[in-house]
Specification:
Number of helices: 4
Structural class: alpha/beta
CATH architecture of one domain: 3-Layer(aba) Sandwich
CATH superfamily of one domain: P-loop containing nucleotide triphosphate hydrolases
CATH class of one domain: Alpha Beta
CATH topology of one domain: Rossmann fold
Strand content: 25-35%
Largest sheet: 8 strands, mixed
Shape: globular
Number of strands: 8
Helix content: 25-40%
Distance between the termini: 26 Å
């Protein structure tokens, strides 16, 4: 039904078996951005996509959801990567108390799930992505307007 479709500069439809391709394309296009925020409903594949991006970056260990830990740290060939999941946070104040803001200065890359919980903490240069569920096998990723 869907192919790996380029709808515009950053509006792509992909399936799970193409996740490595989309991860490589995102890194190629947005690899200079250090903070990426992923807006998507539950079950859209945020963690799966971040794991694929991490693999493309050279992270050797399994990348898992930091839902309960709030933040996991990984080494990507000498670069520090933080994977944050703000789902359990109530607000910006709680996120700041948990040290999320300071992490942006420490890490080479930060990937944030559920950024809407504390949008005010994100640096102004954050790259925002939205993932939309099209059907059980296909997703659309785009830059929200």
């Amino acid at each position: 039904m869907y192919a790996f479709t380029y709808l515009c500069a950053m509006d792509r439809i992909y399936s799970l078996h193409q996740i490595g391709e989309i991860a490589a394309a995102l890194l190629k296009q947005f690899g200079t951005k250090t903070v990426w925020a992923f807006h998507a409903p539950m079950g859209a594949g945020k963690t799966t996509l971040i794991a694929a991006i991490g693999k493309e970056m050279g992270i050797q260990e399994a990348i898992t959801s930091p839902t309960f830990a709030l933040m996991n740290q990984y080494d990507a060939q000498g670069k520090m990567v933080y994977h944050m999941d703000w789902y359990r946070l109530e607000n910006e104040k709680e996120a700041a108390r948990a040290g999320m803001e300071a992490a942006f200065d420490e890490a080479d890359f930060c990937f944030v799930e559920w950024p809407e919980k504390a949008l005010g903490l994100l640096p102004s240069a954050t790259q925002h992505f939205e993932i939309e569920i099209l059907d059980p096998e296909h997703r659309r990723i785009f830059i929200p307007s």
